[in-house]
Amino acid sequence: MNQPLAGFAPAPVTARMENHGHHMLKVAMQTGNDLLARVGSMVAYEGFVQYEPNPPAVRQIARDWITGEGAPLMKCSGDGLLYLADYGANVVVINLGGDGISVNATNLLAFDAHLSWGVERVKGLAKFAGQGLWNTRISGQGWVALTSRGTPIVVDCGGGENETYVDPDALVAWSPNLKVKGKRSFKAQSLIGRGSGEAYQMAFSGQGIVVVQPSEDSTDRLRIRG
């Protein structure tokens, strides 16, 4: 019986975070190196791992989540291997290496607890969304895991003059140093995008990347707050 299943066995640990297949995250847990993860994302673990929902560090930042921006988080601590997933979504693992990333809360699966993070206003979009749009920014030396509804594409903006346009409902994350602005095209509103009922895109320019999923999720990608 074991032989046909051998190909699905966990591989030896090589990094703090890594994929086990396309839809599961494996985290090497160590005492003193805690993890913040989406509540309900644990599917299995080995060793001794404890969980604390809504820890004080999260509650402090969550005061800015007036209308529910951000995903409920739990602190994971201990020693062992932790496996996380989010309803079969693809998992994307990123080692920030001192850089930062701006993430839609619905695509945030887990990140190292020692990283700097918080909710921030997406600049350049206020005139398109009333009071503006908000996202979660994470930065520092450590690991982040994102989810994508299907295999994502990572677009390198390249620092040129040309802009990269993305449907907000397909947007996963982007480099926070990119310039962001909104664009409407009423002539093509029946052909481009499906989330808002009109042709509204986000335009990115500068040096950095944009992560786009092949799905226009019906949930709020960027939460509008009053």
From TrEMBL:
Signal peptide: none annotated. It comes from the Bacteria. Pfam families: AIM24 (PF01987). Gene3D superfamilies: Mitochondrial biogenesis AIM24. InterPro entries: AIM24, AIM24_sf, Trp_RNA-bd_attenuator-like_dom. This is AIM24 family protein.
